[in-house]
Design a protein that fits this description.
Layout: E1 2-9, E2 12-21, H1 23-34, E3 41-52, H2 54-69, E4 73-77, H3 81-90, E5 97-99, H4 101-116, E6 124-132
Parallel strand pairs: 2-3, 3-4, 4-5
Antiparallel strand pairs: 1-2, 1-6
Helix pairs in contact: 1-2
Length: 141
């Protein structure tokens, strides 16, 4: 099973993934990301992903294609050694933008500037955890 915690940071939406991105959950995870409103930059935080299978890798490629065709940006962040290994041996590492510590620091700084600006709308928004279960697609509330 995989679950998502969604945080909106200015123009970026960070999807913290926890668990396994496998055949049973990959499509539901893709749908949850696609249905998230106001996404301009989607960042998948993979620090707590314990497994990814071929369907999970296919879902990541599908999200990249979706983001490119919709003028959006998809970035991967906090790759575990296991995920890095999978991306390397499949040749997919060069396909994805990998979010560095500097990138995230700049994102947080931009968000902070938006929060401090008078009349600025909400730049930082927390979302509840979204459980993703097989056979059911779940969007953010």
């Amino acid at each position: 099973m995989v679950s998502l915690t969604v945080q909106i940071l200015g123009n970026a939406t960070v999807f913290q993934c926890v668990g396994r991105i496998t055949f049973a959950y990959a499509d539901a995870l893709r749908i949850a990301v696609i249905r998230q409103p106001r996404v301009r930059v989607a960042v998948l935080d993979l620090a707590q992903v314990s497994a990814i299978d071929a369907a999970g890798l296919g879902m990541l490629v599908s999200l990249r294609k979706w983001s490119t065709s919709n003028g959006l940006t998809l970035k991967l962040m906090n790759l575990t050694p296991y995920v890095e290994f999978l991306l390397d041996i499949t040749g997919l590492r060069s396909v994805f933008q990998i979010c560095s510590v500097e990138d995230m620091l700049e994102l947080f700084c931009q968000t902070n500037r938006q929060i401090e600006s008078p009349g600025a709308g909400p730049a930082l928004e927390d979302r509840d955890e979204i459980p993703i279960t097989a056979g059911r697609s779940v969007g953010a509330a």
